[in-house]
What we know:
The protein is α/β, with parallel strands linked by helices. Helix content is 36%, strand content 18%. The protein is built from eleven helices and eleven strands. The chain has helices at 13-22, 58-61, 76-86, 103-111, 132-138, 155-166, 186-197, 208-219, 222-229, 245-250, 257-263, and strands at residues 2-5, 28-32, 45-48, 64-69, 90-94, 115-121, 140-143, 149-150, 174-178, 184-185, 202-205. The strands form three sheets. It has a seven-stranded parallel β-sheet, sandwiched between helices. The radius of gyration is 19 Å and the shape is globular. It starts with a strand and ends in an 8-residue tail after the last helix.
Amino acid sequence: MTILVTGATANIGRKVVDHLLALGANDIRALTTNPRKAALPSAVQVAEGYLRQPDTLPAAFEGVDRMYLAPTPDNVAEVLALARAAGVRHVVDLSGEPESWRGGVCTAVEDSGMAWTHLWPGDFMENTLIWAQQIRETGAVLEPVPEAASAPIAMDDIAAVAATALLTDAHLGRAYPLAGPEILTRTDLVRHLAEALGRGITFQRASREETIAVLTPAMGDTATWYVDNVLTSFDVPASALPITSVQEITGRPATTFARWAADNAARFAVD
């Protein structure tokens, strides 16, 4: 059973490869644009290709039974048609609810005729890295709603769920909303980062315009979209957040934000 991991050198795809290996998979193919720089484990077959260049995909899809699909909303239908024609049977996609901005991916996967498993993660722990520059330079985080709460999930846990779903038919036809193991406000996140860094970090309530301005150096033109569509959307009732999802699917505890902050403190620290 050959498993193809697309986006295999990206943040989540690379971790999917590692989790598949840890779970005993022995026929993994990794799709990457530059095999020579991929630095993938020797046990992994490396295929050159790019989801946004469909003409590079048929050779990578040949002989593949299951596939982890990184999100490419702009041409996902064409990618899936090629996968199905090559005989791919099961797609585990990173997407979102049908009404979300990534919803077109899960809809296209279901329309493809292949078996599917949807992964719908919420807030990523790694999203806090957009604060790194202002923490380093000012010791403060500016956002409009400090009391907003979510249950952020580590990318490594998303990858662990993807690897689990790829290795069995038990998850066919399932859509999994994913979250981290605890509900945290924006100020809780800053407090954990301060503890990991061993320094004081303040949280300052800011206007929409002030928040966009302070995030633009890290996010560029996407800062406005992020403030308007993400920071204002942390309004899901706590009881609706799937905080046990990772453990229920993988059988191991999900990463806490305190653990993630400790492991990633150097990414926020002053050079």
